[in-house]
């Protein structure tokens, strides 16, 4: 196990785990609001136990490879420095750590997540770093913004700190 600032890297069976903060985002109209990664329905996991939709911090998604309605986040900049990509379609195994940045004790929960949206630094600078290597207000380089409906379904509580690693997505 190596500790690098607020980024904790733990090797588990050859896979690296990264620490991140989390927040939640709400959607008022699922029929009218789609993810920035190509129009995925933000409620795509409403009936899938153990899965959540997330928007990854902008710093995990840059550069973007298209213009227009969708971001087409690649995550190549983060991957180039040995970090974890938050590009569109990336999936993760996620474990909450039983605490949040405010030192509240919470339940530990394991779930899976898919990146379908962007947590833009412009709109959420306190949580979502904009550039690779930047950290949020709590000292974390990585951040996952979880759909509120999925936070409730999974009983995650408020802003748990998580360990996460990339996995293959559902097919």
**Main pleated sheet:** 6 strands, mixed, barrel
Which sequence of SSEs, written as H and E, runs from N to C? EEEEHHEEEHE
Secondary-structure-derived class: mainly beta
Quaternary structure state of the chains depicted: single chain
Percent of residues in helical segments? under 10%
Number of helical elements: 3
Poorly predicted residue ranges: 1-14
Strand content: 25-35%
Rg, rounded, reads 15 Å
Strand order of the largest sheet: 3-7-4-6-5-8
- End-to-end C-alpha gap: 32 Å
Task: Assign an overall shape.
Answer: globular
Sequence-ordered SSE layout with sheet pairings:
Layout: E1 2-4, E2 7-12, E3 15-25, E4 51-57, H1 58-61, H2 76-80, E5 91-96, E6 110-119, E7 143-147, H3 148-154, E8 162-167
Parallel strand pairs: 3-7, 4-6
Antiparallel strand pairs: 1-2, 2-3, 3-8, 4-7, 5-6, 5-8
Tell me what the structure shows:
- This protein has about 170 residues and is mostly beta strands.
- It contains 3 helices and 8 strands.
- A 6-stranded mixed beta barrel has the order 3-7-4-6-5-8.
- A hairpin with a 2-residue loop joins strand 1 and strand 2 (about 5-10).
Keywords, separated by commas or semicolons:
171 residues, mainly beta, six-stranded mixed barrel, 8 strands, 32% strand, disordered N terminus
Describe this structure in a few short sentences.
The chain is mostly beta strands and 171 residues long. It has helices at residues 58-61, 76-80, 148-154; strands spanning 2-4, 7-12, 15-25, 51-57, 91-96, 110-119, 143-147, 162-167.
